[in-house]
Amino acid sequence: MKKSLLLLSVAAAACLPATSAVSGVITAWDMGNVVVQSGPYIDDITYHSDIYDRNVTGGTAGAVSNGYVAFTPPDGVAPGLKVVNDEPYPGAGQAIPDCIQSAGTSECQGPFQSHKRFKMRATDPGAISLVFNVEESQDLNSYRVYEKIINETGGRLDGYTIELGFGLGDDFVLSTAGDGLGFDLNQGGKTNFAFGLFGDASVNQHHDLDGFFDNDARSGFNVSLTEDVYTTQGIFGSYESLFGPWVSTTMVPFGYFWDNDNDLTTDAILMAYLDENGDWIQRRTENGALAEPSVPAIVDEATLLASGYTMGLVDDLSNVNSDYYLAIGDISGWRTYDTGTANFTVRLTTNAVVPEPGALALLGFGLMGFAYTRRRKS
């Protein structure tokens, strides 16, 4: 494994017994609790790798699923997630050559918006468990996790928790301090809504257009990170004041999008959206082949259609990008250890919001939206 201790934090190294000379390398996603939708697969159609609360190699009777990993060919391939070890990397700024990411042609160190994030779709509040197989190694290993979490529950969520441990369902046991499994605390963790909706392009190297709803600042979840638990703690930025708690895919508003480069493989630019009063609000205008922020104005839908814009869902309002790193140390003391191999569980638990009568102003905005399809970048 191409790694030195300098690439790991003191906190990550603290997960390892001081006398240990053996560590672990993640070899694969363990599919024992997963059922992958079978092919043949058709481009631009989304498929499922359904995740259950128990081993389902003998069938799914009695098993519960709260979510799935989605993959959409040609950018995504079955089963939707892969583990990468020892990817060549350019050096400065790209110090972690190992990752967990979407399955396909993308790479850990690939360029911005190259479909690296695997799509975790939460269909019901509760736990969704990814199990990974590990083998002994002589090196300390840190893995960057590229994940997009999508609220597909039909209701609002007030955040989520990611726990590291062992086992599935009621048999899950949380990892303990210093057991060789933990988050890499030096690398940290963060959860953001899409920059295209919230953010100041002048302080971001990857963007040249400010966020649609907020030109000045990002929005996302505050994060509390310990060795074995990643917890969101409330939303920062303007998201909640505009839309309330984290909305589901069935609750996002419609928007009108401009395909400024006539390329279906790139993102179209959001130009206007339908607000809770039923008005189309335009917040960007054209400037040649580019878009730029403008003073929000109510416009007639016919004007948007005449401009050549296309209606779709502002689906990024239901998505958050979750970034964190896993530190893998000595696996020999794990409860799953057996002759040089072991496995561990990354358990995501989403938390539902109990709605108040008359609340949830956006409910119903998305009912027609699934008729619109468009390939979107990660």
3D structure, described in words:
The chain is mainly beta and 378 residues long. It folds into 2 domains: 5-252 and 315-371, no CATH class; 254-313, no CATH class. Helix content is 4%, strand content 39%. The protein contains 3 helices and 22 strands. It has helices spanning 10-13, 239-243, 301-306, and strands at residues 23-30, 34-36, 47-52, 65-71, 82-84, 99-101, 118-122, 126-137, 141-151, 157-166, 173-174, 181-183, 189-192, 220-225, 229-236, 254-258, 269-274, 280-287, 290-299, 310-313, 319-328, 341-352. It has a 17-stranded mixed sheet that branches. A 5-stranded antiparallel sheet has the order 19-18-17-16-20. The protein is elongated, with a radius of gyration of 21 Å. The two termini are 28 Å apart.
